[in-house]
Specification:
single chain, alpha+beta, five-stranded antiparallel sheet, 171 residues, 8 strands, 5 helices
Length: 171
């Protein structure tokens, strides 16, 4: 794959909590093939499976997310759209400032297609970044756990924990 990769790129862990416990960081930013091989071998030897991910240029303001709950019947029970304004550390950190946004058809369509393709049920947070090179949204990640910013949808009137409870306990 040496000639198929663009640099810089990142090595992103499959099990982030274990990776962070070992290395004290969320991922490895690599600038060339030699660095990639060194970091990949270190991760492999330490028992941390990783994936290689392209780095989309631009700042945190280009990040867009939808949080969605697909209930036990396979129906979208709620969605919440937001932008990351600032992360700490920048680029690969945890959202520190975010704003709720209005409905975004493009983000919704991409997230729904991905989740439907795997017949997903439950909560998911799909994050995309608008690539300034072609103005297309690129998938950054899908988290299937509540994010640390889970208070933002609740404060905006979308109470995912309550909806999940109702779906799983009351139906």
């Amino acid at each position: 794959v040496r000639d198929q990769l663009m640099y810089p790129c990142i090595l992103k862990p499959i099990h982030s909590h274990l990776f962070v416990a070992t290395y004290g960081r969320k991922n490895f930013f690599v600038n060339n093939y030699t660095e990639l091989c060194e970091k990949f071998e270190m991760c492999h030897n330490d028992g941390h499976p990783v994936v290689v991910q392209e780095v989309i240029p631009g700042g945190d303001e280009l990040l867009e997310r939808v949080q969605v709950y697909i209930n036990s019947k396979g129906e979208v029970a709620a969605e919440f759209f937001n932008h990351k304004v600032r992360q700490n550390p920048a680029i690969f950190g945890v959202m520190r400032v975010g704003i709720s946004t209005g409905f975004d058809r493009e983000v919704q369509d991409l997230a729904h297609r991905l989740l439907q393709a795997v017949n997903y049920r439950g909560f998911a947070s799909a994050e995309f970044k608008r690539d300034p090179r072609d103005n297309q949204l690129k998938l950054i990640e899908v988290n299937v756990r509540m994010p640390r910013s889970g208070w933002l949808p609740i404060a905006s009137g979308v109470n995912f924990p309550w909806l999940i409870y109702q779906d799983l306990m009351l139906d």
